[in-house]
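Subject: design request, 395 residues
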């Protein structure tokens, strides 16, 4: 439970802090052990089981605890569609492990899904409707967290790999898919965009893509980030920081490969295939496998406007505290979270915030990425108009 109380001076608006995914600072990728690779994959909500496709079949590996990096050996999924031909590629599983989506080839690559009952039995494979499966190839599908959209890649004739999404009208009924933004600094450009994962609020997207940006050196397959803006469009993409490989810049080679992203349900851990070059007696040798990077909170916060929310100033869930406020126009705000001893444990700043209603959510992590214990905390807000302190108790 989270109790929020207001203290000191009111300055005409309400505030809150939002720790969501951004293309800021991440830790270097740590390989899962034992080293294992494949194609697209997904994790359950607890991050204790990973499903992936390899050699045209779907497998899972597991671990005892989300903080452990000791994974089991692969186990092939026991399902009627996972025993023989036709060939399977890619996979995604819902966080509750009830729906699994994959590509299957007969006379074309199309998308199929299977559901698991309460006894753990998987159903036969069901094809998505013709508005999704076309004469072109369809791959790498996943649902948004609210199940409103199906995101997937379509190999359009003459253009390999284009990210689309289709709104789900009713179970297995979809609107005509829309192509996500197009342009050199947009999501789709050149036909090499595929395999995406969404932030917990479904506003941000991380995807595999290829860009050659001269000032950033030669690109290879990397991970990029974009988010929906207030007007419903998508912002300029940013390459995730851990995709830069300084060793190879000196050799004037392309950097390593990062692809097939899968973001954890809380937005803290990003799993993906990593291919890098390591120093050996024989020189630079490629190593590839599943890995994970952890988000560094302070550089990964973001703010978004006009949320779909009611007019209440405070919203509470199991793992976050949210506040909303009205900006008076081109205002700068400084936000600080302090513990009971008055020590600052997290900060965030905005610059030239346009007029409008905004919402920020704090997910009770400090700047080192550690989840904070129960107790009393303070949110300090400073702007040109004055300051305000909010006191809340995490129980």
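Subject: RE: design request

Done. Sequence follows.
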């Amino acid at each position: 439970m989270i109790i929020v109380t207001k203290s000191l001076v009111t300055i005409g608006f309400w505030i809150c802090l939002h720790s969501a995914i951004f293309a800021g600072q991440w830790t270097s990728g740590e390989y899962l052990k034992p080293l294992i690779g494949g194609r697209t994959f997904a994790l359950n909500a607890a991050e204790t089981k990973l499903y992936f496709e390899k050699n045209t079949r779907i497998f899972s590996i597991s671990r005892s605890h989300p903080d452990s990096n000791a994974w089991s050996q692969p186990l092939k999924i026991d399902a009627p569609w996972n025993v023989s031909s036709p060939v399977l590629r890619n996979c995604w599983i819902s966080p509750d492990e009830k729906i699994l989506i994959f590509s299957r080839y007969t006379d074309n690559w199309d998308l199929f899904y299977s559901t698991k009952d309460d006894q753990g039995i998987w159903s036969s494979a069901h094809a998505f409707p013709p508005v999704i499966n076309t004469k072109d190839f369809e791959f790498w599908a996943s649902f948004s967290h609210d199940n409103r959209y199906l995101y997937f890649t379509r190999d359009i004739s003459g253009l390999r790999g284009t990210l689309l999404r289709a709104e789900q009208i009713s179970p297995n009924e979809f609107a005509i898919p829309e192509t996500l933004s197009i342009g050199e600094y947009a999501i789709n450009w050149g036909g090499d965009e595929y395999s995406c994962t969404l932030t917990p609020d479904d506003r941000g997207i991380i995807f595999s893509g290829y860009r050659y940006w001269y000032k950033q050196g030669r690109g290879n397959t990397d991970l990029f980030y974009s988010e929906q803006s207030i007007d419903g469009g998508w912002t300029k993409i940013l390459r995730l920081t851990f995709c830069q490989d300084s060793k190879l810049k000196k050799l004037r080679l392309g950097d390593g490969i990062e692809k097939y992203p899968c973001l954890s349900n809380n937005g803290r851990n990003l799993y993906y295939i990593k291919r890098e070059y390591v120093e050996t007696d024989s020189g630079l040798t490629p190593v590839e496998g599943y890995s994970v990077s952890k988000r560094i909170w302070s550089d990964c916060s973001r703010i978004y406007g006009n949320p779909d929310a009611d007019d209440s100033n405070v919203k509470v869930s199991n793992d976050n505290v949210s506040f909303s406020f009205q900006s008076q126009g081109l205002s700068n705000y400084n936000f600080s979270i302090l513990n009971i001893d008055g020590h600052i444990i997290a900060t965030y700043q905005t610059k030239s915030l346009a007029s409008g209603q905004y919402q920020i959510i704090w997910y009770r992590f400090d700047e080192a990425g550690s989840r904070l214990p129960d107790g009393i905390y303070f949110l300090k807000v400073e702007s040109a108009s004055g300051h305000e302190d909010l006191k809340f108790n995490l129980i």
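Residues 30-296 form a domain with the Tachylectin-2; Chain A fold (CATH 2.115.10.20).
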